[in-house]
């Protein structure tokens, strides 16, 4: 039997590269696509020798063409870290809107099922906690994070419209803060920021008073949830994340303990519109997909720390933000 063919956009990024690995492991033919704006080919270089992997360097905000049959599309291309999308706001808006439109059109032309990567940021600075999928969110459209949040909200809206009006098979995953090996040490997200600072012997920068919360999900759990959602028959948004909530101050203290650094927490200004709390309600994923996270923070952080520690020295020292 011939292999199922899947297109993964954002393939050279953190989540995209782990998804490529997973679908290769399941014996799919994987077509990776990425313009490398925040990604790194080293994340997928181990796949280049495989006959069931191909890669296109391409910006999906322009027209997307892929030769041959396609069974599935995973649209993961988008800057994902606040400092990235503040640096490249227009590209962020375009990949969530125009990029999604192109991939929905491609899915329709090929008769493929498409899963789009949405985010807990569609809930903005939430006034309910934990956040269930029914919550409509609290987003400032014209604030600095609006370029990402509104692009993803538009992405969800157009994906649902293709489902409703064209009968396209669509899936929407709302991803909550996910971490693991292959995050960029300098992408500004809190985990690589803290571990990078610890490795360089710098103080750990907590933004605000550190009372804001996040709930961190290990990448293997996230990939398993996405895999199950793709193969399910549920077209509406599903939260995938780990409900174990922690304040950023406590998180900093955990990183200090994990890395054994003698540095301390220092406090910096809180970025505008930084959500005060975030925790997924995962009852839908549990009921529909039989999914829940398996890897606790202690184990996930240990694996991730080992990864960052093994990077070449000049990479650990290099900061470009
Ligand atoms: P990442 O920056 O590591 O990966 C994104 C990839 O998309 C990069 O390789 C980048 O080069 C590529 N890309 C960006 N714009 C593109 C374009 N126009 N054309 C082609 N490729 C393009 O980020 P990530 O953490 O792996 O996030 C992947 C997806 O998951 C994103 O859509 C993001 O919004 C979503 N997400 C991630 C998280 C998380 O915690 N990691 C949380 C919520 C949502
Ligand atoms: N944060 C911090 N120090 C840093 C980087 C981030 O205290 O060096 C905080 C940030 O203000 C936010 C939380 O950590 O409250 C998570 O930030 P991140 O950028 O990882 O993701 P977000 O969930 O905000 O998209």
From TrEMBL:
GO terms for biological process: D-xylose metabolic process; UDP-D-xylose biosynthetic process. CDD domains: UGD_SDR_e. It is a single-pass type II membrane protein. Keywords: Decarboxylase, Glycoprotein, Golgi apparatus, Lyase, Membrane, NAD, Signal-anchor, Transmembrane, Transmembrane helix. Its cofactor is NAD(+). Its EC number is 4.1.1.35. GO terms for cellular component: cytoplasm. Belongs to the NAD(P)-dependent epimerase/dehydratase family. UDP-glucuronic acid decarboxylase subfamily. It comes from the Bacteria. Transmembrane segments: none annotated. Residues 7-303 form the NAD(P)-binding domain. It holds the Pfam family GDP_Man_Dehyd. The keyword Glycoprotein applies. GO terms for molecular function: NAD+ binding; UDP-glucuronate decarboxylase activity. This is UDP-glucuronate decarboxylase. Pathway: Nucleotide-sugar biosynthesis; UDP-alpha-D-xylose biosynthesis; UDP-alpha-D-xylose from UDP-alpha-D-glucuronate: step 1/1. It comes from Parapedobacter indicus. It is found in: Golgi apparatus, Golgi stack membrane.
């Amino acid at each position: 039997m011939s292999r199922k063919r899947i297109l993964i956009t954002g393939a050279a990024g953190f989540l995209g590269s782990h998804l490529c690995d997973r679908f290769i492991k399941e014996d799919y033919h994987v077509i990776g696509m990425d313009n490398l704006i925040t990604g790194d080919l080293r994340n997928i270089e181990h796949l280049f020798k495989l006959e069931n992997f191909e890669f296109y360097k391409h910006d999906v905000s322009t027209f997307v063409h892929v030769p041959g049959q396609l069974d599935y599309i995973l649209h993961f291309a988008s800057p994902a870290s606040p400092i990235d999308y503040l640096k490249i706001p227009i590209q962020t808006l375009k990949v969530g809107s125009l990029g999604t439109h192109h991939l929905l059109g491609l899915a329709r032309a090929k008769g493929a099922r498409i899963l789009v990567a949405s985010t807990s940021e569609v809930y903005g600075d939430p006034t309910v906690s934990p956040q269930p999928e029914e919550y409509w969110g609290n987003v400032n459209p014209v604030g600095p994070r609006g370029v990402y949040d509104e692009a993803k909200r538009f992405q969800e809206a157009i994906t649902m419209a293709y489902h409703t009006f064209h009968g396209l098979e669509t899936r929407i995953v709302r991803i909550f803060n996910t971490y693991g090996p292959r995050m960029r040490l300098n992408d500004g997200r809190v985990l690589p920021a803290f571990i990078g600072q610890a490795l360089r012997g710098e103080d750990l920068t907590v933004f605000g008073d550190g009372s804001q919360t996040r709930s961190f999900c290990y990448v293997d759990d996230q990939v398993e949830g996405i895999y199950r959602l793709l193969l399910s028959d549920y077209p509406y948004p599903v939260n995938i994340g780990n409900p174990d909530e922690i304040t950023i101050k406590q998180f900093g203290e955990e990183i200090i303990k994990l890395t054994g650094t003698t540095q301390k927490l220092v406090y910096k200004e809180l970025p505008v519109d930084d959500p005060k709390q975030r925790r997924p309600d995962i009852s839908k994923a549990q009921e529909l997909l039989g999914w829940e996270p398996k890897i606790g923070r202690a184990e996930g952080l240990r694996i991730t720390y080992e990864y960052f520690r093994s990077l070449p020295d000049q990479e650990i020292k290099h900061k470009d933000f």
